[in-house]
Design a protein that fits this description.
Largest sheet: 8 strands, mixed
Strand content: 15-25%
Helix content: 25-40%
Distance between the termini: 51 Å
Number of strands: 19
Radius of gyration: 22 Å
Number of helices: 14
Structural class: alpha/beta
Strand order of the largest sheet: 12-13-16-17-11-18-10-19
Length: 485
C-alpha cells in the first residue's frame, strides 16, 4: 500500500501588508522529498504521526513537500504553483498511489483563490483521480469550507490550543485513510458552522467556554469515527471564515449532520461567553509591576505573531519604560535595529530606534538608549510539548539592555511558543520578573508551567480582540459579534 504524504500549511491574515511568497516558507520550513520524513520523524508534527501510522498500519510513505510558514498576507499564485508542482512531479515519478495524507491549515487564503486549502485539495484530487482517498489534518483555527468537505474523504482537526496534539491527529488521519482504502469504512462528513466569529484569545481549549464544546465533541465521538471542533481564524476575510463542527461517520450521513448541528447549536448558544474582556495596556503593566510573585507573563494579544502580526509592536514596551519597570523582557522583530546593534558591537551603548516599522497598527518606533549584551545566530531547537525537536530560526538576534528591561531583537519574527527561544540567548525565563510574549494562547504550552500569573492585554494591533476595527468585504453577513441578532 502506497500513500502520498506532505503538507502545505499557512494561516493567512487578509489585512496584513506582508505578502506570502516562496521565500516566506523557505525562511521558516520548506522540505522536499525524503528530507520530509528524515527531518520530521520524531518531532511534534503531523508528519511524525503519518510516519508512525505507516509503521502501525503497514503502508509505504511517498514523501512530497512540507511547507510551513508563519502567518502573513495572502499566498502568491506562483508560490502555490511551485509547491503543488513538486507534489505533481513526485506523483508522476511514482505512478499510482492508494491514498493521500496531507497536512493543511484550514485558514489559507490565496491570491487567485480565497479558499486556499480548498484549492490545494482540488489540485490533489486532479492529480490522483476521483477514486483515490484523500485525508487531511487541519489546525484548530481552520475556516473549514464546504468545498474542502466535498473533496476530502477524511478531515481531522486538532483538539488542542495551544497545539500539542499534531502527532495524534496525524496518526488518527492515517488510521482512517487505511481503513477507507481497505473498505472497512465508508466515511461521510458533515459540517455545520454558526454565524459567528471567535478571537483566538477566547479559543483556549482548556478554558471555558471552548472546553465545554470539546467535552461535547468527545461525547459525540462515541457515535462517530471522528469529531472536530474548530475555532476559526477571524482575520481571514473570506466567506468561509468562522468556527465549525465537523463530524465523520461510517456511511451514516444523517447521524453526522445531527451531531454536527448539536455542537454548532451549543456554540451559538455560548456566543456571548466568547466575547473578550481584557485590561488596557496601562492597567496590565501596572498590575505586573505591583505583583509580588514572578514571573508575570504579559500576553500582547494585539501583536500575536502566530496570527499574522509583524511582532514589532511597541505599546507595551513604551508603557514599561514609562512606568520604570524592573526585570522585564520584551522580544521585538526588527531587522534594522539588529543590523545597527551588530554594527555597534557587544559591550557598546547606543541609541536604537526600535519597533513600529511595519505598519500603522502596532505603535510608533521608540528611540531607546541601550547597551548591546549579546549577538546570536538566532537558531534554537524546541523542547517540550509544542513543536518538540523542530529547529527554529530567528535570524541574527541581539540582546540589548535598557534601564530595567532586556530587549531581544530578531531579524525574523518568531512566535513565543518555546522557552528555548529565550534560553538560547542567555535569558533564564524563570528568573525574570515580567516577560512580554507576542501571543494570545500558544505561549501557554511553554510559559504556563513557570508563570506565577498571566495577564492577557487588550493591546492594539492586527490581532486586536476588537474585530469591528477591520473593514471586512467578503465575510458572510450577518455575523456575530459584528452584527445584531
Amino acid at each position: 500500500m502506497k500513500i502520498l504524504v506532505g503538507g502545505i500549511y499557512h494561516e493567512t491574515h487578509s489585512f496584513s501588508n506582508v505578502p506570502t511568497d516562496i521565500g516566506s516558507f523557505r525562511r521558516v520550513l520548506l522540505l522536499e522529498g525524503e528530507e520530509v520524513v528524515e527531518k520530521l520523524q520524531g518531532t511534534v508534527s503531523e508528519m511524525a504521526g503519518f510516519v508512525e501510522g505507516a509503521k502501525r498500519f503497514g503502508f509505504d510513505l511517498i514523501p512530497t513537500i512540507w511547507a510551513w510558514g508563519v502567518s502573513t498576507g495572502p499566498v502568491k499564485a506562483a508560490t502555490f504553483d511551485y509547491l503543488l508542482d513538486s507534489v505533481r512531479r513526485t506523483l508522476e515519478q511514482e505512478g499510482q498511489v492508494d491514498g493521500v495524507l496531507f497536512a493543511l491549515h484550514g485558514a489559507c487564503v490565496g491570491e487567485q483563490d480565497p479558499d486556499g486549502d480548498g484549492y490545494i485539495l482540488s489540485k490533489l484530487r486532479s492529480y490522483v483521480g476521483e477514486d483515490t482517498p484523500i485525508a487531511v489534518t487541519l489546525d484548530f483555527h481552520a475556516n473549514t469550507s464546504d468545498r474542502m468537505v466535498r473533496i476530502a474523504d477524511v478531515i481531522v482537526g486538532y483538539d488542542t490550543y495551544p497545539h500539542v496534539d499534531q502527532v495524534e491527529r496525524g496518526l488518527e488521519a492515517a488510521e482512517l485513510i487505511v481503513r477507507t482504502i481497505k473498505r472497512e469504512i465508508k466515511p461521510v462528513i458533515a459540517l455545520e458552522k454558526p454565524p459567528m466569529l471567535i478571537v483566538p484569545y477566547k479559543q483556549a481549549t482548556a478554558a471555558y467556554p471552548m472546553n465545554e464544546l470539546l467535552i461535547l465533541a468527545q461525547r459525540c465521538e462515541r457515535e462517530a469515527l471522528s469529531v472536530t471542533v474548530s475555532g476559526g481564524f477571524p482575520y481571514s476575510d473570506v466567506p468561509e471564515t468562522g468556527p465549525g463542527a465537523l463530524v465523520i461517520t461510517d456511511n451514516q450521513p444523517e447521524l453526522a449532520r445531527r451531531l454536527a448541528r448539536e455542537i454548532s447549536s451549543r456554540m451559538w448558544e455560548l456566543r456571548e461567553e466568547f466575547l473578550p474582556r481584557l485590561p488596557s495596556v496601562k492597567e496590565a503593566v501596572t498590575s505586573s509591576i505591583e505583583s509580588e510573585h514572578w514571573p508575570v507573563i504579559l500576553a500582547d494579544v494585539g501583536d500575536n505573531i502566530g496570527a499574522g502580526t509583524p511582532g514589532d509592536g511597541t505599546f507595551i514596551l513604551q508603557e514599561l519604560i514609562d512606568q520604570q519597570a524592573e526585570g522585564a523582557v520584551v522580544t521585538i522583530a526588527d531587522p534594522m535595529a539588529v543590523a545597527q546593534a551588530i554594527e555597534v558591537g557587544v559591550g557598546k551603548c547606543v541609541n536604537l530606534n526600535i519597533g513600529g516599522k511595519c505598519d500603522r497598527f502596532h505603535g510608533e518606533a521608540l528611540d531607546v538608549e541601550c547597551c548591546i549584551k549579546l549577538i546570536s545566530d538566532g537558531v534554537f531547537t524546541n523542547r517540550g510539548h509544542m513543536r518538540d525537536g523542530l529547529v527554529e530560526k530567528m535570524g541574527r538576534t541581539v540582546v540589548v539592555e535598557a534601564p530595567g528591561i532586556k530587549i531581544v531583537l530578531t531579524e525574523i519574527k518568531m512566535p513565543p511558543w518555546n522557552l528555548e527561544q529565550l534560553r538560547s540567548v542567555g535569558i533564564t525565563p524563570e528568573n525574570e520578573k515580567i516577560i512580554v510574549v507576542k501571543s494570545a494562547v500558544a505561549f501557554r504550552a511553554a510559559y504556563e508551567p513557570i508563570a506565577k500569573s498571566i495577564i492577557e492585554v487588550n493591546s492594539p494591533g492586527l490581532s486586536t480582540v476588537d474585530l469591528k476595527q477591520f473593514d471586512y468585504e467578503y465575510i458572510k453577513r450577518p455575523i456575530f459579534p459584528l452584527d445584531q441578532f
